[in-house]
Amino acid sequence: MYLNRATLMGFLGSDAEVRTGKNDQKFTTFSLATKTSEKDKETGKYISHTEWHRCIAFGKLGEFAATLKKGAHIQLEGEIQHSEYKGVQTDSIRVHSILKLDRAAKAAEDEFDEEEAA
Fold it and tell me: Are strands 73-85 and 26-39 parallel, antiparallel or unpaired?
C-alpha cells in the first residue's frame, strides 16, 4: 500500500495565477505559507519559521483556485510532486481539494459593519 497525501493550512502569499502548459492545458499556481514555531531552549522565547509551498491546481479546481487572492486563508489536500527543470529540482503540491477558511471571519466583519451603520 502507498500513500502520497499532504494537508496544508495557511495563507496565500500572492494572487493565484493562471498559466498555460503543454497542449494548451490551463492550470493555476499559487504559493501557500505555513508557519511553525518552537521554543528556544536557551532564551525560552518562541521562534517562528514560515515555509512556502508551491501549489498547482488543474481543471475545475484550477478555475476555482484562480479566484483566490493574496491573504486568503485556505486548507488544501493534495500530493507532493518532485520535478526537475534545467537541472533545478523543485517540489510542489498537486492540489486535489481546497477549503476556504476565511468565510466566517468575513461574514462576522460584514455583520459588524452593518451594526455600526445602524
Answer: unpaired
9-27 b/e (C-beta count within 10 Å ≥ 16 → b): ebbbeeebeeeeeeeeeeb
pLDDT at 115 over 90: no
Residue 62: how many other CB atoms lie within 10 Å: 19
Rounded Cα–Cα distance for residues 118 and 91 (Å) = 51
Select from 75, 62, 61 the least CA-distant residue to 103: 75
Supply the pTM of this predicted model. Answer: 0.79
Instruction: Spell out the alpha helix ranges (H) of 1-118.
Output: 59-65, 103-117
Is the separation of the CB atoms in 73 and 100 below 8 Å?
yes
* Cα distance between residue 10 and residue 53, in whole Å: 10
> In which residue are the cell numbers 459593519 written?
113
Q: Are 97 and 76 in contact (CB under 8 A)?
A: yes
How remote is the C-alpha of 66 from its chain's centroid? 12
